[in-house]
Write a structure and sequence with these properties.
Number of domains: 1
Number of helices: 5
Strand order of the largest sheet: 1-2-3-4-5-6
Length: 170
């Protein structure tokens, strides 16, 4: 599978299994710490889920050289996961307190390691194990909202029926 194929699978996972109400895919901004997460999902309460998609071993191995991997407190995400084809990354290779999601050949995702869960039931909101860069996340969110404002879409957030109307479309 390619990185381009993995990103939509990660997005779907974070929205459903990650219980996020909004998520960003490969959103580039100058307001953050230089990190451009493949997926950054936001859940109510301000909890964030970061997913890094890895299609190759070399991409996974080079990831550890990034400044926010060497210093995890500089990175984004309360909860952090790698998503990759089955077997590309083993649980033993993961950085401290990272989860692992496998994607099968037919595109189905399955979380095989979840360090945030106290039970086998899979609720990822049990324990937050990371310090994170709040300023980077706020800059990231600011950039997204600023783009909506510039395009004239910010008024939608004031529409009390907007969420209901949006859900009814699907």
């Amino acid at each position: 599978m390619t990185h381009k194929e993995l990103v939509p699978i990660a997005y779907k996972w974070v929205m459903k299994a990650g219980s996020c109400g909004v998520a960003f895919r490969e959103f580039k901004t100058l307001c953050s710490n230089g990190e451009c997460p493949d997926i950054l999902g936001i859940r109510s309460g301000g909890h964030t889920v970061l997913i890094e998609c890895k299609a190759t071993r070399s991409d996974f191995l080079s990831d550890k050289n990034k400044k926010f991997r060497k210093n995890p407190q500089l990175g984004m995400g309360d909860f952090r996961f790698y998503l990759c084809p089955v077997g590309l990354i083993s649980k033993e290779e993961l950085p401290l307190n990272w989860g692992l999601i496998y994607v099968s050949d037919n595109g189905k995702s399955r979380c095989i390691h979840n360090p945030y869960c106290k039970t086998a039931l899979g609720n990822i909101w049990g324990v937050n194990l990371h310090e994170k860069n709040y300023k980077a996340e706020q800059g990231f969110t600011y950039s997204a909202l600023r783009r909506l404002y510039i395009k004239g879409h910010i008024e939608c957030i004031y529409d009390k029926n907007y969420n209901r109307n949006f859900v009814e479309q699907f």
